[in-house]
Amino acid sequence: MLDHLLSPIKIRNMELDNRCVMPPMGTNLGNPDATVSEKNLAYMKRRAESGVGLIITEITGVHPSGCVGLGIYDDRFIPGLRQMVDTIHQSGSKAALQLHHAGREAMPQLKKGDESR
Ligand SMILES: Cc1cc2nc3c(=O)[nH]c(=O)nc-3n(C[C@H](O)[C@H](O)[C@H](O)COP(=O)(O)O)c2cc1C
Question: Which residue of 12, 32, 78, 84 has the smallest Cβ count within 10 Å?
């Protein structure tokens, strides 16, 4: 049973070292402008060092009207997200990203990015 869990698996062209997956969990560690922070990177480094096969990173807003975590609605987010993926890959884990819009839960107090100001 554990052997199976810890054995590699290929999902289309992505090979995972094992079948353990970290689900997306909002950390509230992002910068106020919804870009990836040093704290995000440190957190992901620790998680990836655990050896988990796949990390699904936290909710990432597709539009400023519903962005309550990290953002991915503008090119300015690319460098930080790239760094986060590189950090995860450096420990041998793979990364997936959870696209998100908070919808009616997009309370002004929680908003980050362009509409938080
Ligand atoms: C602090 C915290 C943050 C979370 N953030 C997200 C998130 O960003 N996206 C999501 O889909 N689920 C989120 N969740 C739900 C977890 O992914 C969920 O608990 C996990 O999939 C385990 O599922 P279970 O609680 O049904 O066992 C979060 C849970 C916690 C405790």
Answer: 12
End-to-end CA distance of the chain: 51
Structural domain boundaries enclosing 41: 20-116
How many structural domains are present in the chain?
A: 1
- Look up residue 2 and give its amino acid: L
User: Does residue 77 have a pLDDT over 70?
Assistant: yes
How far is Cα 101 from Cα 61, in angstroms, rounded to an integer?
A: 5
Residue located nearest, by CA, to atom 2 of ligand 1 = 25
Instruction: Judge whether 46 lies within some domain.
Output: yes
Burial of 32 (0-12, 13-18, 19+ CB in 10 A): exposed
- For ligand 1, whether the C-beta of 57 sits within 6 Å is no
